[in-house]
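Sequence in, structure out. Go.
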Amino acid sequence: MGMTGVGKSSFIQLFTPDPVGIGDDLESYTTQVAIYPCKMPYSDENFYLVDTPGFDDSNRPDQEILRELSSWLTQTYSNDIKLSGIIYLHRIMDVRFSGAARRNLTMFKKLCGDGNLASVILATTFWNKVDKDMGESRESQLKTIDTFWGTMVTRGSQVFRHDSAETSGAAIIKYLLDRGDKPVYQIQDEMVNNKKTLDETAAGSEVQTEMDKLRRKYEQQIQDLRQDMDESLRKRDEHTRKELEKEKKEREEFIKRELEERKKMQATADALWKQREAEREKERQKHFQRLETLQEQYLEKERQVNESIVTAKHQKEMAELRRQIEIAQVKNDTLEKSKFSVRTRLFVKEVFDFFRDL
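Output:
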């Protein structure tokens, strides 16, 4: 887990031959929870890593991301699949602990629960991007300041440095597997054992509090924008009025979507799974259609090239289409990794047998 761009997908790619989706287009990949069968280097030891979206996606409300994570965690727990631990990644090169980073960490702790923090690895990444002394100073702050990682370390969380190499990654995996503990995380206990709806959980309450603040902020901005639009109308400044109208509609759309998400959070574990699986399938179909469209466009460009003189413009356009198709194909593969509806029983049996034998 962790924010977008901290190296979650890169970490997983160290241990699986399957394409995970890494690079400048990272935000396009991790929109759903995805499972990857992995293997320890120079060993026959197998395990699974799970890629997750972060709570810092400007295109998706935090409630949607929470619904995605919670639906997966509760579904697997309901099928007697327990995690060995959770790896939380953070960029050591970040100068400040941003508001988005704080929100991510707060939500993470609410999902886990204070009693399960000993099963959490706090790993810093991108050490090659900072001076060693500066990195060590930031690491010390993370470990000692309570509002950062201080309380988590006190309650048993371990701090590791991951330098993007296989060796440091394997050390993290080995630590979690050797612990042998399979905790029940707070969101799992609340929704499965205590039959709470998502909005009644600690994580649900936290995300709603934050979204309430954001919604009130947007409502005030809408009022301000209306006044500015009236002023532009009086001044006959049509360009400014249109820009303000666009901003107002964006905020109104956000508020509308937030209210819809609020209703969706009033769901039990089973209802949440069905709800999210339907949404995931819709996203898969939409993306698959985009992939088909790109492939058709490429074939048409190829036909045009064969029938005419190849220009630099044609070559550039085809190269860009190839790039988009490659990106779309990797995301298509990634979305398939989150597809449980067709292979749920096989997946559950395979993972259950694996964890039972550990």
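Check: The radius of gyration is 23 Å. The chain has twelve helices and five strands.
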